[in-house]
UniProtKB/TrEMBL annotation:
This is XRE family transcriptional regulator. It comes from Streptomyces tsukubensis (strain DSM 42081 / NBRC 108919 / NRRL 18488 / 9993). SUPFAM superfamilies: lambda repressor-like DNA-binding domains (SSF47413). PROSITE patterns: HTH_CROC1. Residues 22-74 form the HTH cro/C1-type domain. It holds the Pfam family HTH_31. One of its GO terms (molecular function) is DNA binding.
Length: 276
């Protein structure tokens, strides 16, 4: 006798509603999880856990479901809401502002900024910072970060400027292969139509932003906000004087960093020094 499907709770959150709608449309189409798996290229077990809201859907799934069921964007709309729920409350406003930003400027002191991390680097970082987490929890965090990166792939997305400390390039996560791929991505971003990446070498010495990660967001109309992050907490600054102070410090750091061309060469030298 087949197991009875687990009861769903669509009223709990957008993620739960996404799963409930997926099951409803699947059953309306008289389609098993195995059959749906073949259509959307996601494993049966993963689809089952998405239906019960145990994990976040991967970014490619909503459009595939809309195509499979002819639902005219319903799953993509639900996904946009659900993707915000996998982040702690303190970051939700930041995500909303990121989505509205015309320019994003970042300083990464010890870790490669999340918006430009590779999937394997993300996974390695979360495994180090959450050593007791279950694999499913790690994968959900990975999906959350990849979801944030989607805004930079949009043709109408913001311009992105990164100053990255030499420490972030040399502090390995996941081993040489993971770091080599991550550094290769950074080298590609040093100068593109929408990105500028500069390296701040150790020889620069101390500076005003040495205490932690900083993000500056410029919104339509020129409004600017700043976001500072520590080990496990973040602070959103909207006071004009404080934001202007952070911006002056960032501008000075950017002026002292290597040029994009020299930054690319520096990153490649770090790659070459990795063990094979």
């Amino acid at each position: 006798m087949p197991a009875r499907p687990r009861e769903l709770t669509p009223d709990r959150s957008a993620r739960h509603l996404f799963g409930a709608k997926m099951r409803a449309y699947r059953e309306r189409a008289v389609m098993s999880l195995e059959a749906l798996s073949d259509v959307v290229n996601v494993s049966r077990s993963h689809l089952s856990r998405i239906e019960t809201a145990e994990v976040m859907p991967p970014p490619s799934l909503p459009a595939a479901l809309d195509a499979a069921f002819g639902t005219d964007g319903i799953f993509e709309e639900l996904y946009r809401l659900a993707s915000k729920e996998i982040h702690p409350d303190q970051f939700r406003r930041l995500m909303e502002l990121e989505a509205r930003a015309t320019v994003i400027e970042e300083y990464g002191p010890q870790i490669v900024p999340g918006l430009v991390q590779t999937e394997d680097y993300i996974r390695a970082q979360f495994m180090v910072s959450n050593p007791k987490a279950a694999p499913a929890e790690i994968e959900e965090l990975v999906t959350a970060r990849l979801t944030r990166q989607a805004l930079l792939r949009d043709a109408t997305g913001p311009d992105h400027w990164i100053v990255i400390d030499e420490a972030a390039l040399r502090r390995g996560f996941g081993g040489p292969a993971v770091m080599r791929a991550q550094l290769a991505r950074l080298a590609e971003l040093t100068l593109t139509p929408t990105t500028v990446l500069q390296v701040l070498p150790f020889e620069h010495g101390g500076h005003a932003l040495g205490g932690g990660y900083l993000m500056l967001l410029t919104l339509a109309g020129g409004v600017q906000v700043a976001y500072e992050e520590g080990i496990s907490t973040g602070t959103l600054l909207e006071d004009l004087a404080l934001v202007a102070e952070r911006h002056r410090a960032y501008d000075l750091l950017r002026a002292c960093a290597l040029s994009p061309k020299d930054s690319a060469a520096f990153i490649r030298s770090v790659m070459e020094a990795l063990p094979t």
